[in-house]
């Protein structure tokens, strides 16, 4: 008999419950986003990096952006594998080899800047 009670209890449909209507979210105040100070600290590029981005102290984000601008302006991305960057004379001196992966670029920039 105990099994029959369990079976009927499982078979009984659950009572339909109405979900409470959701309240409209209160409009948030337009919060201005502050950049992280570590990213905005000006860094001095090494001589090799200065040949590509200039000798002026720039934040790391701007340095990477200028390197990418240089790569795209000189059509240095590999045509078959866009993740690879082919070096010209300036970039070969910076990279230390003829071709690097785009993932290595951040490390190379980091190794060639100083506070």
What are the salient characteristics of this protein?
115 residues, alpha+beta, MDM2, two-stranded antiparallel ribbon, 5 strands, elongated
Structure description:
The chain has 115 residues and is α+β, with helices and mostly antiparallel strands. It has a domain at 41-114: MDM2. It contains 6 helices and 5 strands; from the N terminus they run ααβαβαβαβαβ. The strands form 2 sheets. It has a 3-stranded antiparallel sheet with strand order 2-1-5. A two-stranded antiparallel sheet has the order 3-4. Helix 3 packs antiparallel against helix 5 (89-95). It is elongated, with a radius of gyration of 29 Å. It starts with a helix and ends with a strand. 11% of the residues are buried. The model has no long low-confidence stretch (mean pLDDT 81).
Task: State the gist of this model.
The chain has about 120 residues and is an alpha+beta fold. It has six helices and five strands; from the N terminus they run ααβαβαβαβαβ.
Shape: elongated
Q: What is the beta-strand fraction?
A: 5-15%
- Biggest sheet architecture: 3 strands, antiparallel
How many DSSP E strands?
Answer: 5
Please compute the radius of gyration using only Cα atoms. 29 Å
What is the average of the pLDDT values? 81
Major sheet strand order:
2-1-5
Chain oligomer state: single chain
The percent range for helix content is 40-55%
The assigned CATH architecture of the domain at 41-114 is: Orthogonal Bundle
Number of helices: 6
Determine and state the CATH class of the domain at 41-114.
Answer: Mainly Alpha
Unreliable residue stretches: none
Structural class: alpha+beta
Element-level helix/strand string = HHEHEHEHEHE
Here the CATH topology of the domain at 41-114 equals MDM2
The CATH H-level superfamily of the domain at 41-114 is: SWIB/MDM2 domain
Question: Could you tell me how far the N terminus lies from the C terminus, measured between alpha carbons in angstroms?
Answer: 81 Å
């Amino acid at each position: 008999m105990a099994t029959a009670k369990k079976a009927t209890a499982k078979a009984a449909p659950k009572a339909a419950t109405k979900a409470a209507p959701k309240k409209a979210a209160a409009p948030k105040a337009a919060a201005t986003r502050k950049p992280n100070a570590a990213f905005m600290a000006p860094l001095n590029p090494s001589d090799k990096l200065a040949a590509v981005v200039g000798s002026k102290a720039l934040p790391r984000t701007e340095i990477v952006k200028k390197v990418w601008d240089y790569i795209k302006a000189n059509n240095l991305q590999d045509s078959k594998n866009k993740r690879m960057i082919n070096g010209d004379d300036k970039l070969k001196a910076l990279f230390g080899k003829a071709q690097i992966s785009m993932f290595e670029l951040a490390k190379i920039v980091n190794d060639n800047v100083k506070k």
